[in-house]
Amino acid sequence: MLTSSLREMENDGFVLRIQYNEMPVKVEYSLTEKGKSFLPILYELSAWGMKEMRGG
């Protein structure tokens, strides 16, 4: 499931995947500029959720 989600985010341009030719295989993921531009939206959703959990 995680691999599928990461591939989808990579295809959508939200994350960058770098694979190193080592044994065992090493893969790193990082946010692209497009991914970073989505962070303020996630922070707002988080703040809203926390507020709603406290009863509004």
TrEMBL record:
Domain HTH hxlR-type: 1-56
Signal peptide residue numbers: none
TM regions (residue ranges): none
Gene3D superfamilies xref list: Winged helix-like DNA-binding domain superfamily/Winged helix DNA-binding domain
Keywords in alphabetical order: DNA-binding, Transcription, Transcription regulation
Protein name (Swiss-Prot/TrEMBL): Winged helix-turn-helix transcriptional regulator
Organism, as annotated: Sporolactobacillus shoreicorticis
Lineage, top ranks: Bacteria, Bacillati, Bacillota, Bacilli, Bacillales
